[in-house]
RNA sequence: GCCCGGAUGGCGAAAUCGGCAGACGCAGCGGACUUAAAAUCCGCAGGCCGCAAGGCCGUGGGGGUUCAAGUCCCCCUCCGGGCACCA
């Protein structure tokens, strides 16, 4: 026992006390854990009829193996690890896996730079990061590790691809694609941010025409949208972002017949292009040319106000029209150029509207009028039908365009009030008028209908007459998955002269990525330069075939990796559906908000595809999602260019893994950004030292004592009360808010209370049984946040068994309850005094105590108490005059 | 432009349901221990006035509701994120 007699508290025993030395404790436990490969292994699903423990699948997003963990990772994993350990202690069967998102461009860049093969580079990075994770003491079951760049994994990407191909969900078409010159590959729309590459913020994305493989995400657009309503375990922010991304809009498609130019009236044929600024009435000879233009509109109710059609420069009909009109071709060329430029610079919203009249007319199927057909740079070829009816009076963009070119405006919708009193005021000042809570005018048989009703009726009318119908348009596109890269999953397709596109037979999977491929900066797929890879045999006819040389987008890998964890070594299927049925959905998924749309929409899509293949029963991959905040330093995101990167290795070397992890939880609530301050880590480390010394000082008392003591002596009562209040707080937080910062603060407070009783503990005034309870529970409460020190102290207390499976402490409301309360007393809302009353005191007692208080008595002297407000257990407010 | 967050001491933050603003920690100051330092321990600590008792002010700004507002309502400023010619 250490000398502890000083009147100055614990001052004197410090000198000869054991020091907290994480550099010694942590590697030792790391070895002990490493020697038990099953330590973090989940139990198998119970057999039918058996009732096992409840399952809990906690998952953190798998990292890209860059070679170095950064603080964002540490924070992400500290959250997941605390939760996993807590759930273990709560008696759950926990699946807590980790893997590597191991394909991707940086490996090729590294190959170029250091002449290291991508595979070697990647695998050595994985080894390095795995060491860091182990050093952090994270509770992953490495027996379920998934590495996406290994054939054992990516063969199932290929297998899924073939299943999708067979179901028509994977298809090939030529399309304009986003091309990043830096990556020398195609990017999905999702990977283009303000016209720039998501990996290269300074690189403008170009448009190229290429044959590409697509997955039909649009088949699931509606379901992906509807599913969001049920995902109440996901942050509203993420759901909103996905809703915006899917971008559903209801409207109608309407076909406009093109007028045969030969039937235009004689006198019109000499008109200049400005003829195109006015709607012309139908004439007897009007005849359709056979060409049709479909437009998509959300405001079919305004169709009588349409005064032109506007085509996207890339619209199919524009090609026909320009073929016979060189002057037009030249002008359209300019429009395309403007649009391209705007898209590349990301200023699509700010581009100056330009357009050109084609000289042709289309016939409005509702009014039979002839509308001039234009080509305009503000119309997008890849949304809706690539053509619109322009209603300048009721659409801001059309209004702006029409004003510029002097195109006619026609008011067909007005506020109810205006229509009902038939005012003839200057209605033009209203324009553009876009409200839908309005009535139709100048719209033939549809006059006086409300907009919304008119939309339904007019769509029905269009359908009846065969030139349109109500329809829904989505912003979400099919997922382009082809990449002209080496380091990815080969797309398992063959091209045969005779049989066309043929999938690689399943028994020939995986299509192995050839190991020795020269990586160069020239464009096109590196695999195309490997004849042994390209040249294959057609499985149908046995003749020569050419292998697809593109690889898959790496978001394919991460779309289903978490299913593989449940059955990582399966060599005959991606996974055993029974295992997935047991573990899914993921109970808690944790990662950065930056994946709110890309990864998380693709994953939701993939899950539905697997469901429709009969492999899984769940619709959604994850029941709950948590998005943690960024780690910043000095107000800015950590980045090499800013030079404010803090290395986890440094922190661990200086303060230990426990302190580093715990600081990541302590410095801010997990959903908010965290400002990394090294002094704060030192503070947490000091706290752990205090805990360590406190437990070591009294461990001898606790060792061997197993009493359940609930000590009735005053000292025990006070200490146990604090203990049970703390258990209650942390237990409730794990089940709800996840404010681990205040959980750790609560443990600090508790330890402060305990150390203040140091002498009473040493002297025996606090019974040994109480001491044992305090120390044991302190260690248990620390276990999810600081596993090393917790295990060390658990052993020092002589406790048997694995701390990971030790039951989480139960709180006892009776013990947590205060028997006396301090009740603030306010006068007119201002604090004037505090009185102590019994916890169960009734309102009268509290009032009397307040009025009897000396300070209060003095303050209300000569005044009238108008009202007394008593909030039981909270405060008293006296309203005085 | 639209939609979400956020703004609280010197700093990170707390206040979960409208009820003592600033828990916990960092940095700081004073003290103990020490030949000295480190480590540790004890104490002080929102601002202003005051020897003190105490008083006044205070949660980005302005208004409001209430016995009582960081918290609810209206208006505004700044910061961060998402979407943005999507017909």
Provide keyphrases for this structure.
Isoleucyl-tRNA Synthetase, domain 2, globular, 881 residues, Ubiquitin-like (UB roll), aminoacyl-tRNA deacylase activity, RNA-binding, protein biosynthesis, aa-tRNA-synth_I_CS, alpha+beta
Characterise the protein shown here.
By secondary structure, the protein is α+β, with helices and mostly antiparallel strands. Among the domains are: 216 residues, Valyl/Leucyl/Isoleucyl-tRNA synthetase, editing domain (Isoleucyl-tRNA Synthetase, domain 2); 139 residues, Orthogonal Bundle (Isoleucyl-tRNA Synthetase, Domain 1); 61 residues, Ubiquitin-like (UB roll). Helices cover 37% and strands 19% of the residues. Strands 10, 11, 12, 13, 14, 15 and 18 form a 7-stranded mixed sheet that branches. A hairpin with a 4-residue loop joins strand 5 and strand 6. Helix 1 packs across helix 24, helix 3 crosses helix 4 and helix 17 packs across helix 18. The N terminus is likely disordered. The structure holds one RNA strand of 87 nucleotides.
The parts where pLDDT drops under 50 for at least 5 residues are: 1-15
Our estimate of the beta-strand percent is 15-25%
The CATH homology group name of the domain at 248-418 and 430-474: Valyl/Leucyl/Isoleucyl-tRNA synthetase, editing domain
Tell me what the CATH architecture of the domain at 248-418 and 430-474 is.
Alpha-Beta Complex
Q: Which structural category fits the helices and strands?
A: alpha+beta
Distance between the termini: 62 Å
The number of distinct β-strands equals 34
Name the average pLDDT: 88
Task: Estimate the helix proportion, in percent.
Answer: 25-40%
| CATH topology call of the domain at 248-418 and 430-474 | Isoleucyl-tRNA Synthetase, domain 2
* Overall CATH class of the domain at 248-418 and 430-474: Alpha Beta
How would you sum up the global shape? globular
What's the main sheet like? 7 strands, mixed
